[in-house]
Amino acid sequence: MAEPVRFAVDERGVAVITLDRPERRNAINLQMRDLLWEYLGAAAAIPEVRVILFRGEGPCFSAGADISEFGTAPSIMAARRARHDRDIWWQLLTHPCVTIARMHGYCYGAGLELPLFCDLRLASADARLALPEVTLAYIPSAGGTQMLPRIAPPAVAAHLILTGEPVAAADALRWGIVDAVFPPADLDAAVEAAIERALADPAAARARRLRLLGAADTHEPPAPLP
User: Fold this and answer.
1) What span, in angstroms and rounded, lies between the C-alpha atoms of 115 and 121?
2) Closest Cα to residue 220, out of 89, 142, 211?
3) 165 an active-site residue?
4) Which one of 113, 165, 192, 220 is the catalytic residue?
5) What DSSP designation does 133 have?
6) Of the residues 57, 133, 165, 220, which is catalytic?
7) 69 is an active site residue
8) Lowest CB count within 10 Å: 47, 60, 153, 166, which one?
9) Tens of pLDDT along 58-99?
């Protein structure tokens, strides 16, 4: 059986990490979380890799965490230990490579939180973004409550976190949650152009994330985003 996350590196030093569970709208289960952790580590360990592209197979990027696995850990402490031992969110925030998210269709829950940790978020005009955890009596526990207020206006972040309501790609662009929006047919060409720019100047591509990381380390408000 094929793995639900695919990893490939091309001759340019671009690692493509593909969420490949389209029959479940790329809902991220525990196996996928572990594979993401392994592949992020592999990308950091391969000197030639300079850019990571995240994409989703099928009609959407990801509809979020697989809720069928909620509550299946042996205990709360075991769940916390697993998150600590395989913390892909901190790994993303501190990763040496430029990270780019190609967003289309549903980008819900963890399917939005993962891109929030990336350097660049490019969305299709058909993308819908949401943090719907509140509707299930949860919080966005994969970094949504920390990262979204650092990126979007505080009132917008609070609205998404407290209501769970989805927003369109155009609104996400207006609020700075995504960096650019393209017609679906043009998204891949735009992603390729962004990859080429990142390869040419990776320091510039990572500068905004490093400012956010610095703010997180010092507990100071982040610098304004460009």
Assistant:
1) 6
2) 211
3) no
4) 113
5) G
6) 133
7) no
8) 47
9) 999 999 999 776 555 555 555 555 555 568 999 999 999 999
